[in-house]
What we know:
This protein has ten helices and 17 strands. It has a six-stranded mixed beta sheet, with helices on one face. Strands 5-6-7-10-12-11 form a six-stranded mixed beta sheet. The protein folds into three domains: 2-251, 4-Layer Sandwich (Purple Acid Phosphatase, chain A, domain 2); 253-339, no CATH class; 346-413, no CATH class. The mean pLDDT is 88. It is of the alpha/beta class.
Amino acid sequence: MVRFLQLADIQFDTQVLGRSASLRAMLKDAQRAALSRAIGYAITEKLDFVAISGDLFDADKLSFATERFLGAEISRLSEAGILCLYASGNHDPGGSRSRLRSVEWPANFIRILKGSPQIIPIYNSDRALLANVVGAGHESQAVEENLARNFPQADGPIPFIGLLHTFVTSAQSVESHDRYAPSTVADLEGKRYAYWALGHIHVRQKVDEAVEAWYPGILQGRNFKESGEKGGLVVTVHDSGSADVEFHAFSSVRWETLQLKTLESIESIAEFQSEAIRAYESTDPTRDDELLLRLELSGRSPLARQLAETDEAEELTRILTEELGVRHLELRTTNLFPNIPVDKFRGETHVLGEVLDVLEQAKADDNLLKRLKPGDLIGFEEQPEDLPAYLRDLLAGMDIEAVSRFVGDRHED
């Protein structure tokens, strides 16, 4: 039996844009605290090794302070007799100019920097062979080759474990990641490995029931898209070749989004504060980690115009941050609209009625949507087949806005 900790996509020194200096500093500290916590767990549990499946840092932004921090953490593993196996990814490729090659690392830090597979035997304290780890790294920032295909076939009774930073084509959330070192479930399954320790996709998941291939997800979330608890996977590979996988949270800062949709009857800011507190408390916020919270308000509300004012929104944000006891709060009112009875004006023979009819037709007619589309779409970076859904998102609440523009808000319920 062999037990190890799998981490991936830590991305030290990555740039966090659009945030205050204090928030950026907090996230930097949180990344380091998460790794320290993970290393401490591996030492306490006396694991056989730690595997890092790429993107340990951003190569062109790696600071000297981070180099020293990583060296110290890996040395903690060395003192405990634990190997650290690391396969480079697209953010920290292991080519000839890699910073990884110029740093003097502890001897227990085994770097896998080439695309050709490398076999690392894992022994116990009695020098009995426990497993063979096979790893391959990215040598450049944009590897298009299927690296998994070159991995050797598992051979003999000793379990094989794959270590690779790869884009598994059928995995969840692949649409938000670059297609580097692409592979398929069939590629992984065909090697007959006991386990594949993967990196690149930031969402924790088993890629398919047919094969024990897992992404641990990012170690510490950096934005609201990377919400929830983050950490690593503790993997036990038995002598029979079966694997048990457990998630362990190591992050100290958690990003969460709370949606508030039923606001039609709330007519004062004081009522809204009470509703926001009630909704937050219903999520059972009893965790120890520091919370960065986004409140997304949507639907119809008598407060829509008031909350659209910057000064009002900023003051409410300040009050809620204090009352909820969160580290950071954002208030999103993009999809909040005045409480206007739109149906009253539908089907009528005037310009407003015609506008509402066109907007209603666009909900079901892709061709009409494309005719309405402006020449340039700022913010659209998806595939062409995603265009209709994107355009419909842009039109959300446009009927309410149209009525407001034509007749004002005096028709609010």
